[in-house]
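Annex B.
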Amino acid sequence: MKNVTDSFVSLDYWPFAGSFGFNTDILATNPINLTVVLGVLIFFGKGVLSDLLDNRKQRILNTIRNSEELCGGAIEQLEKARARLRKVEMEADEFRVNGYSEIEREKLNLINSTYKTLEQLENYKNETIQFEQQSAINEVRQQVFQQALEGALGTLTSCLNNELHLRTISANIGMFGTMKEIID
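ATP synthase subunit b, chloroplastic: predicted structure tokens.
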């Protein structure tokens, strides 16, 4: 390492300009070459690099501006979507409430109509039972009357003679005459 630092410090190591040749000492020539290249690049590339950086800066700023505009549009669309969602949720709740109340109303109507139908059927059943009872009673009365009449006729025929028969007919005709006068 001492040789490297010595080569930079001591000027007698450097060859004179009168001769041209290749210096094969990499450690001595590399820093000089790098310094020259960097100096040329900085001097001539400063404008190009500045233009590249300015263009890059403008593209980044345009991209940021476009992103902000898109973000603003997205936020606006999001707010509209949220408003539509709230509106649809309110309508859904309204339909749900109306649907439930409609179902309850229909249920009550169905129950009421079923009760009315059951009452009508019960009334028809009771009327039918009363009619059948009345028919049975009338039939029994008819049979009892028939049997009583047959018994009375049998008793009358066996006990009645001509004279009693004529008196009974006269009494009945007198009763009918009295009834006719009352009616008129």
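The chain has three helices and no strands. Residues 131 and 172 are 36 Å apart (CA to CA). Further annotation is deferred to the next reporting cycle.
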